[in-house]
Amino acid sequence: MFGTDELCSLRWDPVSEKVEVIDQTLLPHTLRWCHLDSLEAFCHAISTMQVRGAPLIGITAAFGLAHALSQDASDENLAGAAATLLATRPTAVNLRWALQEVSVAVRNLAPPERARAALDKARALREEDIANCERIGDNGLQLLRTLGSGDSLNIMTHCNAGWLAAIQWGTALAPIYKAHASGMPVHVWVSETRPRNQGTNLTAWELQRAGVPCTIVADNSCGQLMRQGRVDCVIVGSDRTAANGDVCNKVGTYLKALAAQANGIPFYVALPESTIDWDCPGGEQIPIEERDVAEVLSIAGLDAGGELREVNLAAAHSQALNPAFDVTPAALVKALVTEHGNFNASEEGLRKLRAAMNGA
Ligand code: MRU
Fold first, then answer.
1. By alpha-carbon position, which residue is closest to atom 12 of ligand 1?
2. CATH number of 5-129
3. Location of each CATH 3.40.50.10470 domain in the chain
4. What are 14-31's pLDDT values in tens digits?
């Protein structure tokens, strides 16, 4: 299913050595690849959300650092380019992780060897991400199988944690793709995810392309759907997971977790190990990105003539606030679905996960 470059969010051409990403700000109306050919272009792609989603942000930054080293492989540029990339978005910890991975791979090499080694590392991280997301899919599928009622399984998700947020498969959507491919009937409730509408614009687009039945719902309708017994489980991704199992994800995730607990519905979080911040003891320590209030005060879409337009929603000079993420306490999470297996969201669960990572 995900064996072709057509279905990936970032591609690297071995002949031209070009890095191209899908410009996600244009979806679902236009599918356009965008060539990243300068440090500025990589930073712009991340900060303006042409690429977004914790795993993809990390991989894009890794290629961005490799590109910067191909221009100037000095110690100063290694540190400077890594710092510039790190400043593009504060919450997704994969950004820091990927920059560290590349920096460690090259810092003890002579400058002429650094660019090639950095590119090799970025390519390896990309391949690992694909393999890890596929494993997340297999592990999550085991959980979905325990919920089967005979009818179609109704799964709710928030934001976009599909292949657009990773390279292929995705995190939260990987088990859904696996279930669909295995013949299990599934239907996905896609919450729109105001203010950037990643659910409407990205998740629904991905699922429709893959032939997975899905329905877009307003964020505010999700509690009611749960009360009505129309949701069998909720599965979301994570932008940063603390060492105690608290999960930071797209704003609105916490409300879904509360509603899921109140209605006895399992709430799962799917994430690769690169999303865990082992130095972060709990969710309070996670920096929450605040984005431009224009995202709240306006909305973009196609007009009747098919032109993409942005329109104001609020009265002129309205005050607004735009926190992009929230923290869901570990106690509300039924399981963390990872490439190493499924674990409790707790300090003990994370310790077991770390042991599994180390092959214990
Ligand atoms: O602001 P974004 O679109 O980069 O945020 C992404 C998310 O919060 C997603 O929910 C996702 O689950 C985390 S990345 C797989």
1. 237
2. 1.20.120.420
3. 137-357
4. 888 899 999 999 999 999
Distance CA 58, CA 125 (A): 9
Residue of 23, 129, 219, 239 marked active site: 239
Closest ligand 1 atom to 196 CA: 3
For residue 250, the ligand 1 atom closest to its alpha carbon is 8
Which residue of 89, 206, 239 sits with most ligand 1 atoms within 8 Å of its CB, as the best mutation to test the pocket? 239
Judge whether residue 298 has pLDDT over 60. Answer: yes
Give Dmax over CA atoms of the chain in angstroms.
63
Q: How far is the CA of 237 from the centre of ligand 1 (A)?
A: 7
Q: Which of 64, 63, 79 is nearest to 122 (CA)?
A: 63
- Residue 215's CB is within 10 A of a number of other CB atoms, namely 13
C-alpha distances in angstroms, 151 versus 173, 185, 187, 232, 294? 20, 7, 10, 11, 42
Q: How remote is the CA of residue 165 from the centroid of ligand 1, in Å?
A: 7
Identity at 121, one-letter amino acid code: K
- Class level of CATH domain 137-357: alpha beta
User: Which residue spans of the chain are classified as CATH 1.20.120.420?
Assistant: 5-129
Confidence tier at 6 by pLDDT (50, 70, 90): low
CA of 71 to the centre of ligand 1 (A): 31
C-alpha distances out from residue 357 to 91, 129, 280, 304, Å: 23, 15, 18, 52
CA 239 to ligand 1: nearest atom: 13
Q: Span 308-327, mean pLDDT?
A: 97
Distance of CA 266 to CAs 154, 332, 338, 345, Å? 12, 9, 16, 13
pLDDT bucket at 85, cuts 50 / 70 / 90 = very high
Is 303 among the residues known to form the active site?
no
Q: Which two tokens stand for residue 280?
A: 């972060």
Pocket of ligand 1 (CB under 6 A): 52-55, 159-161, 165, 171-172, 198, 236-239, 249-250, 324
**How far apart (Å, rounded) are the C-alpha atoms in residues 33 and 30?**
10
